[in-house]
Amino acid sequence: MQIDKEQFKKDLAEQIQKDYSQSIDTVSTGEIYQSLAKTIRYYISGDWIKCKDKVRDNLEKQVYYFSMEFMIGRLLKETLLKTGMLEDVTDVLKDFGFKLEDILESEREPGLGNGGLGRLAACFMDSCACLGIPGNGNGIRYNYGMFEQRFSDGNQVEWPDDWLRNKNPWEIRKENRKEVVKFGGTVRMDANLKPIHEGYEIIHAVPYDMPIIGNDDKTINTLRLWSAELILEDSELNSVEYSKLEAKKIEIQKITNVLYPDDSTDEGKLLRLKQEYFFVSAGLQSIMKDFKKLKLSISEFPNKVAVHINDTHPALCIPELIRILLDEEHLEWEEAIEITRATMSYTNHTIMQEALEKWPAHFLKNLLPRIYMILEELDRRFNDKYSSSLTEEQLRNTSIIRDGYVRMANLSVIMSHSTNGVAKLHTDLLKTEVMKDLNFLFPDRFNNKTNGISYRRWIESCNPTLSSLIDETIGKEWRKNPLELAKLNDYKDDSTMLDKIERVKNINKENFSDYMKQRYDFDIDPKSIYDVQIKRFHEYKRQFLNALHILYLYHKILREPDYKMQPVTFIFGGKAASSYYRAKKVIKFINSLAYHINTDPRVKGRIKIYLIPNYNVSLAERIIPATNISEQISTATKEASGTSNMKFMLNGAITLATLDGANIEIKDQVGDDNIMIFGLNKEEVLDYQSNHNYNASDIYQNDQDIKMVVDSLVNGFLPKLGYDGIDLYDSLLKENDRYYVLKDFHSYKEASAKLRCMYKDRKKWNKMSIINTANAGIFSSDETIKRYAKEIWNVNGDF
Ligand code: 8GP
Questions:
Q1: Which residues, 6 or more positions from 781, have their beta carbon under 8 angstroms from its beta carbon?
Q2: Would the pTM of this model clear 0.90, i.e. be above it?
Q3: How do 179-183 and 201-213 pair as beta strands?
Q4: Residue 490: pLDDT above 70?
Q5: What is the CA radius of gyration of the chain?
């Protein structure tokens, strides 16, 4: 977008005046950020309107991506880059005496996501906009993010993530588009067998819209986030009891207060269920309203609307759409089912049993009586249709309601036209293990869509040094078409280029080291290897294995004081769910280990370790460009895909990996020599699981190294760990090491040592690094989204 700098200056000063009644030289960087973002939003608003009009006037099919999380990260820099305003705005700010960097830093990261699924949703929204696909997000406007992570005595402490404290300048409240969501009550059938829902509670859902901007001003889509509010109509004002009003308001706001409320109690579970129905119902009602304005036959609905269910959290989209079609559009069951199935598609993001949502039937019956009736009818129809062709066991595995639970994954597969996994291995496991009976019934519905990442954020924006070097080397076409990165393969033996690659990495490492010093007062030697594991804390992701290995190295150095090794800084980042006891113990273990190692002069200059608090997108943007070794060490079969593995690869890190998730596809891209693989493979893990022939105690008893590290969890070797090591010790020996940490320990140790050794030959290392970047093109989320658009959503775009 071309802007007139002088005009922009005036507009910004005016916005500041409007917002704060102050002149620009008296406001803080945080205040400038707010007004600057609003000015930019105003500048793009014309294009945003045009885009909405174009989609409506051309009757274009639209995608609605329903997701509990949209981990969008900070928006200012991305927006400036995509709109082409970066340079001009930097100049304008300079004229006012401000540095863009400072303004960017004052943006609070939106508390709208937590993990891979949420970040994927953000990358997908970005790709839709950049590819000209009318793709909108639909989610929840959380008043607080999941939590802000702090550490106290090494323990994770959860603080409220008050991200909206200074308001979100990108959003627009649309009270006139509010919807009514109904909870509770009873349903009876009238004389014509029409359901009458009575005695329910009404919650208002108010949408807040944010623009999702494509590059080159192409497309601006909408991320619509719903907020639960108490809105009294004029007629209600007289009858209301003001004393009870405040309590009611708080009760209602609870629904959209926080991402993933603790669900270890029934109350918490119920709140999550409320959240899920809340944004699903509001979203679908508003989509239906927009569709009705087109004045088309209702049978056209799936030709104009695609609803994507991001994991099972929004699976209530299915009965909710059926409800609308039956009760409000007065369709027959068959047609309602047909339209719903043709509209819905579903992505599964994990095969962990505990994450495959199941709701106690009585929860649904009480909270959403009409929805529950619909689910019962869907289950009845399914059983009627398939009971004769399935065995009892197959029927048990596939039906929607069983043993007093409603199974959301089964519902999603049965009632959608597409179910996809997020990497080849994951899809394969869905088809052959986790959902094999559903795959038997609906083989054509299952398909793979390997995840991808947005190149705009994960290299262009976060790694400008490497991006410029790539421009210089192969031209700028890769920024439009990431597959062009393959041209870098021609430079893998070019010693000048290899030196440049090293220089770029070193600059990034130095920048990161400066940041760590300034922000956390933590010293990192930029000459050490940066070995990084950043992701949610989960047993299957095995941060524990990483930490046990560091403990082993610590012992080794103490035993062999002259042990020579390439200095390494081990960096961790990630949150543990507040009710996930064991994951929190791993955090405590890492922090304790860090305390002892970092303060022990005997290991100085060889190993250091740091768990960065409150890991988020902004931190990832700083860490990834500086990383040498990317730790992707989940137990084979457990990580659906992973996406940080792709980000690291793109930025030239070498992956230390198990054959799990998309690591396998990364290996296929770079070849065996440019990735370090270790550990059990899928077949071996499945074999242990089905034959129950794994014995962790045997390994422990017969291996001196392993015994030494495992014992150090409980024998006082790490005084800071105190009694907190007992649970981890038990997880290995009493619970027979469910994630095969001990089994994989040695191959991990050896793979890690080999990699560190390889780092000595810098020329070879840089060559591996360039090969990784060169072959990361296929992991662009643009490529992934093109496949979703063609093979699942059947929508058009400019590609
Ligand atoms: C994640 C998977 O763990 C990761 O392998 C995958 O790359 C990513 O989804 C995107 O597909 N899953 C989640 O984030 C997840 O299951 N979150 C639930 C806790 C909400």
A1: 120, 123, 124, 126, 127, 451, 452, 453, 454, 455
A2: yes
A3: antiparallel
A4: yes
A5: 27
Say if CB 127 and CB 784 are below 8 A apart.
yes
- pLDDT-derived band of residue 644, with 50, 70 and 90 as boundaries? very high
Is 535 annotated as catalytic? yes
Whether the CB-CB separation of 701 and 707 falls below 8 Å is answered with: yes
Ligand 1 atom having least distance to the Cα of 661 = 5
- The tokens for 651 are 């930025």
pLDDT surpasses 80 at 165: yes
**Angle of the 581-599 helix axis to the 543-559 helix axis, nearest 10:** 30
- Phi and psi of 677, rounded to 5°? -100, 145
CA-closest residue to ligand 1 atom 10: 117
If you measure from the C-alpha of residue 350 to the centroid of ligand 1, how many angstroms do you get, rounded to a whole number?
A: 6
pLDDT, tens digit (0-9, with 9 covering 90-100), for 3-34: 999 999 999 999 999 999 999 999 999 999 99
Measured from the Cα of 69, ligand 1's closest atom is: 20
Does 217 have pLDDT greater than 70?
no
Residue 17 CA, ligand 1 centroid: distance in Å: 44
Q: Which helix (H) or strand (E) holds 201?
A: strand 201-213
Residue 193 — pLDDT band, cuts 50, 70, 90? confident
Q: Is 67 in the pocket of ligand 1 (CB under 6 A)?
A: no
Catalytic residue among 417, 426, 445, 535: 535
Q: DSSP code of 310?
A: E
pLDDT at residue number 244:
81
Long-range (24+ apart) CB contacts under 8 A made by 288-292 are: 288/324, 288/328, 290/56
| 636 contacts 685 by C-beta, under 8 angstroms | yes
CA distance 437 to 335: 26
Q: How far apart are CA 360 and CA 383, in angstroms?
A: 19
Q: What number is the average pLDDT over the span 341-365?
A: 94
Assembly ipTM: 0.99
Catalytic residue status for 94: no
Q: 354 falls in which pLDDT band (50, 70, 90)?
A: confident
Indicate the fold that domain 59-74+109-451+785-793 takes in CATH: Rossmann fold (3.40.50)
Kindly give the number of the ligand 1 atom that is closest to the alpha carbon of 313.
20
Residue with CA closest to ligand 1 atom 17: 117
Average of per-residue pLDDT across 342-356: 92
Q: What is the DSSP letter of 354?
A: G
State the pLDDT confidence band at 138, using cuts at 50, 70 and 90: very high
Cβ-contact 237, 152 below 8 angstroms: no
Give the long-range contacts of residues 321-324, CB within 8 A, separation 24 or more: 321/284, 322/374, 322/378, 323/370, 323/371, 323/374, 324/284, 324/285, 324/288
Q: Where are the domains of the chain?
A: 59-74+109-451+785-793, 455-779
- Judged by DSSP in three states, 306 sits in strand
Active-site residue, from 457, 505, 585, 647: 647
CATH superfamily of the domain spanning 455-779: Glycogen Phosphorylase B; (3.40.50.2000)
Q: Is 449 in the pocket of ligand 1 (CB under 6 A)?
A: no
d(CA 733, CA 738): 10
Q: What Å distances lie between residue 272 and 202, 259, 314, CA to CA?
A: 17, 9, 11
- Asked if 59-74+109-451+785-793 and 455-779 have one fold, the answer is yes
Angle between helices 704-711 and 741-758 (to 10 degrees): 100
Does residue 379 register a pLDDT over 80? yes
What's the token pair of residue 127? 């790709």
752-770 pLDDT tens trace: 999 999 999 999 999 999 9
* pLDDT > 90: percent of the chain: 95
Q: Using H for helix, E for strand and C for coil, what is the string for 681-727?
A: CHHHHHHHHHHCCCCHHHHHHHCHHHHHHHHCCCCCCCHHHHHHHHH
Q: Ramachandran region of residue 184, left (φ > 0), alpha (ψ -120 to 50) or beta? A: left
